[in-house]
Amino acid sequence: MEKYKKEHCVERMAKTLKITRSGYYSRKKRPESKYKIKNKIVTEKIINIFHSNKCCYGYPRIHAELNKKEKICGRNTVYNIMKCNNLRAKTKKKYRATTDSCHSNQVYENILDRNFNVNEPDKVWVSDITFVYTREGWLYLCVILDLYSRKVIGYSTGDRISTQLLLKAFMMALQTRNPKKNIIFHSDRGVQYTSNKFQNKLRKYGFICSMSRKGNCWDNACAESFFHTLKVEEINHNNFKTREEAHIKIFEYIEVFYNRKRLHSYLGYVSPEEFERDIA
Questions:
Q1: pLDDT digits (tens, 9 = 90+) for 71-110
Q2: Which end of the chain is more exposed for a tag (fewer CB within 10 A), N or C?
Q3: What pLDDT shows up at residue 226?
Q4: Which residues pair with 129 in a beta bridge?
């Protein structure tokens, strides 16, 4: 009635709804209940968390963010408020594979063997390459993650899917981490990873090479998962004019949001950087 009182007579609406005018005005004067006041505050917080995190959080992550300092409400409450306010996390699209494994280069044993639970940093690094569409042409992205914290420790972009793309990401990871020897470096069997140039770099810095089985994306699931997350939360919702524009968005996503802010379910709903800082 309050919403439509400028359009319709209060007396007529009260009659239609089978209530009294005095009852309507009495209810207006009555203060809101503590439950409604709290619900309004929680709703505002949920909407703020949703929009400040690229509209990509579903109710489990929003619940974790909301209850970081103190218990405010349960998961079902968050779910219901999001549903009532039409807050839906971004959805995925399908992408084709980019791996070229049709080569005569040497391939290596799958040492990692899907053992994705690592108990210390710089013990296992995983890497993969994907592509991003721009109106200027394809932009290729190579990333390297530390499997311990799922943090992106090295990445590079370019207009060609080359060994140089991988080497740039690898050198960035070395400078970022300054690691010891005997780190497992896991990837697919793509020609960039099996190339002599890259294999020589791995041997020079004392890495142990591990590769997924042919045509088995699950062997490198953590790197695949990062690309899925990146595309769902950032790439799919942009129409990039140039490669440079896409590169800037990827840089911002990795450095500002993913590594430092985004809550990771595997890490107990903290960011990769926070996880490494708290465990250290």
A1: 888 888 888 888 888 888 766 554 444 554 555 678 999 9
A2: C
A3: 96
A4: 142
Asked whether 165 and 196 are in contact (CB, 8 A), the reply is no
Distances (CA, A) of 126 to 132, 165, 245, 269: 20, 15, 26, 21
**Helix H or strand E segment including 127:** strand 124-134
Residue pair 168/174 in contact by the 8 Å Cβ criterion: no
| DSSP 8-state secondary structure symbol assigned to residue 135 | T
100-149 pLDDT, tens digit per residue, is 455 567 899 999 999 999 999 999 999 999 999 999 999 999 999 999 99
**Residue that is written with structure tokens 């996880």 in the block:** 275
Indicate the DSSP class of residue 270: B
Show the tokens assigned to 16: 């239609």
Q: Based on DSSP, count helices (H) and strands (E) in the chain, helices before strands.
A: 11, 5
Asked if 185 and 209 count as a contact pair (C-beta separation under 8 A), the reply is yes
- Give 62's Cβ-side CA count (13 Å radius): 32
Q: Give backbone dihedrals phi and psi of 253, rounded to 5 degrees, phi first.
A: -65, -45
43: which 2 tokens? 């709703």
